[in-house]
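Changelog-adjacent note: as of this version, every example in the card shows the full chain rather than a window. The one below runs 307 residues end to end.
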Amino acid sequence: MRRFQKLLPFLTLIVLFIALWIASPYFLTQTNLSSLVRQTAVINIMALGMTIIIISGGIDLSVGSILAMGGLVGTMAMEKGLPIWIGIAIGLGVGFLCGLLNGVLITQLRIAPFIVTLGTLGIFRGSTLLISGGLPVHNIPAAFSYLGGGNLLGVPFVLWILIACALAVHFILEHTRLGRYAFAIGSNPAAAVYAGIPVAFHTVSVYAIGGLLTGLAGMIEASRLMTGQPTAGSGYELQAIAAVVIGGGSLHGGEGSVVGTLIGAFIMGLLANGSDLLGISNYVQQVIIGAVIILAVAVDELRKRRA
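Full-length structure tokens:
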């Protein structure tokens, strides 16, 4: 039964892929698949950061706002004449600092991650709007579009970035002390403390990594749109969390995987892409996403009760 539950997200992805292949003649076109990869990459990269956070027993509701702030500040730097790579580095740095702040507030104030990140969601979004005056950044170097829209060896460049991020997060989770400690903290925080694990330090590290990846996602989003939007990323936190949960991650902590998250994110991407191809309203897409989250969490709860 447990093996079937682990395979369920993968089977769902295959069934959904085949169903869309049959339902729409445009689904398997190169243009659509390339667009699907580019659209899904942003949520995928955010979800990879969210995976580490959820495994450690936390959650981050502010990632949509972090994405907007990172993308906006990075593009503003380019607008001021700084080189593209410095603008990208600034965007990543902003994401890292936002995640670091979340981790520090959670560990030092000893407030639940849900409450802290709910608060910083508003703080980061409001700060982004104040910095920009509510106006988007448009005067961006044309070469910046390569990050989100270019191809390398006939494959979207963002797919190479996603693969690199996935391998890095997998390495962290499976082959580093931070990864082992993240699982331990998420499984039983009290036991982790008694075992001598520096819980506060590793919790802050987890949120900082999540923020860094979200900053990268923000720069990719800005590159795709060729604008720094202060309102970007609205609702993305829901999709990132959903990707982790659909992929087998537990909101109780201690469970999750890179492969599961990638599958979950692509399921979300296929649902959105298929809805667009079939003319299904965006409002219905939101209903579907909400229902899928509830279903995934309900399955996890039932499995834990039977264990």
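Structural remarks: The mean pLDDT is 88.
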